[in-house]
Write a structure and sequence with these properties.
With about 475 residues, this protein is of the alpha/beta class. It has 15 helices and 20 strands. The strands form five sheets. The chain has a seven-stranded parallel beta sheet. It starts with 5 loop residues before the first helix and ends with a helix.
């Protein structure tokens, strides 16, 4: 779908190029500054600002392949990013977790593992995000090792790494390479993980994110550069202004990946929504958010890049508000032709909470959407009309002899059946969607089957984790 005309797309492109040429991007990383300076960009070392002309930026962006493939330890779970393919991930990053029986609580490893098991169980989830909830009882500087190990042993799907610094990124790369029995050199030629690099909007790439980006690119793993442009807070209040800023920040980060390793895969990330101008609270699933999801897809296609976006919700519960906000944003994502729908299942409370019930509701929504995306099969016989434009067989209209009889059969009989279903629903407890979702995730955990892993591979992964924890405990950042 197109919400922007071709000249509007070009106007946003031109504005974003002007931003990069005149205002620039603050880069809080010395190595990244060196790369841009060597490429011919104007680098102000005092303010750590990079100004790059549009010719350089577009030359670098043009090096990015239009598609890429992630291969996890199970080759049958390959993820294709780009073209006509769409991948869906779990929510990633919340500090809290919630279900209807135990309430809201801090993220922890037990819940993390259960949420990962649900991702394995539901085939609508194509891959995992980065830390579906944060296990806050574990040390912050090494908990990524425990979550990577859970991802690799409890599922056989690909996942996103934490790229806050080079160490976390390299750990994830190394562990997936071990799981696949590959050297880092071979893994660079056949990637299996990706990451989200968040731009600190407006117009700042911080030191840790730049380190993570460059480490991923150096090892040939796809990088998704995603500005966090909330209209009225981190970006202009207008959609056009926010898109111009988003475009400038995303293309700048993607250009950096090509300075590190030309031809490495990259993904155009979009996370443009708005804030409530009365309270300042982030809002998702709004008309502005939905339009931004569609328009961002047009921009990504302008540069022939794979496209990532998110169907968020600001609701504090897995309720009707959460469902309709997510549905609005998800429609925008798919009509915008997103290739990677991040935070697709389980997002609640503006991303502060991973919800078991919302995960189930979202999975069902994804199932509906993927069915909607499937091709339509049309039987030629269904298109045959008689001289009056009517379907010749079985097509009775008002005034035909059997109209009332057929109407009673076609309409009232299903109504009676629905009434009987309603009675059965009441006898089963009259549960609403959220309560039924509780039963579904509990049953799914009972039915979960852990994918097999070679014992030697598991030992190698556990040994890597133990070694890295010892190194990190010895003072490594």
């Amino acid at each position: 779908m197109r919400v922007l005309s071709d000249d509007h797309v070009e106007a946003i492109h031109d504005a974003s190029m002007t931003i990069l040429e005149t205002l620039g991007i603050e880069v809080m990383n010395a190595a990244a500054l060196d790369l841009f300076a060597a490429a011919g960009a104007t680098v102000d070392r005092a303010s750590r600002t990079v100004r790059a002309d549009r010719g350089l930026v577009m030359e670098l962006v043009a090096r990015v392949p239009s598609t890429c493939t992630l291969t996890p330890r199970n080759p049958d779970c390959r993820v294709h990013l780009g073209g006509d393919d769409v991948a869906f991930t779990l929510v990633a990053g919340p500090p809290n977790v919630h279900d209807m029986e135990r309430g809201r609580r801090a993220g922890n490893l037990r819940d993390y593992r259960d949420l990962v098991r649900l991702a394995q169980h539901f085939n609508a989830i194509t891959m995992l995000g980065n830390q579906v909830c944060a296990p806050v009882e574990l040390p912050a500087n090494s908990r990524h090792l425990d979550t990577y190990l859970a991802n690799l042993t409890l599922t056989d799907k690909s996942f996103h790494l934490s790229a806050i610094g080079s160490g976390r990124a390299l750990d994830g790369i190394s562990m997936m390479a071990i799981a696949r029995g590959l050297s880092l050199e071979a893994f660079a030629r056949d990637p299996g993980v990706t990451t989200i690099i968040s731009v600190n909007s407006p117009r700042r790439l911080d030191e840790a994110m730049a380190d993570g980006l460059m480490t991923m690119a150096a090892h040939g793993q796809p990088v998704c550069v995603t500005p966090f442009t909330l209209m009225g807070a981190m970006s202009p209040v207008t959609l056009a202004g926010a898109l111009a800023q988003q475009n400038a920040e995303a293309l700048f980060g993607i250009a950096l990946t090509q300075l590190v390793r030309p031809g490495t895969p990259a993904i155009y990330g979009a996370f443009t929504s708005n804030v409530d101008m009365r309270s300042g609270a982030p809002a998702f699933g709004t008309p502005e958010n939905t339009k931004a999801n569609i328009a961002s897809g047009q921009l990504a296609r302008r540069y022939n890049l794979p496209y990532r976006t998110t169907p968020g919700s600001a609701s504090n519960a897995a309720d009707a508000q959460g469902a309709y906000e997510t549905m609005m944003a998800l429609w925008g994502a798919l009509l915008g032709h997103a290739n990677l729908v991040y935070h697709a299942a389980g997002w609640q409370e503006g991303g502060l909470t991973a919800s078991f019930e919302k995960l189930v509701i979202d999975v069902e929504m994804i199932q509906h959407m993927t069915e909607f995306l499937s091709p339509i099969a049309v039987d030629a016989g269904e298109l045959a009309l008689d001289a009056l434009g009517r379907v010749p067989t079985g097509g009775h209209f008002f005034g035909d002899a059997h109209t009332l009889e057929r109407y009673a059969t076609a309409f009232y009989q299903p109504m009676l059946s629905n009434w009987q279903n309603h009675e059965a629903w009441l006898e089963a407890g009259g549960l609403d969607a959220t309560a039924r979702a509780t039963k579904v995730w509990k049953k799914a955990l009972e039915e979960y089957e852990q994918p097999a892993m070679d014992p030697g591979t598991r030992e190698a992964l556990e040994a890597y984790v133990a070694k890295r924890k010892e190194e990190i405990g010895a003072g490594e950042p």
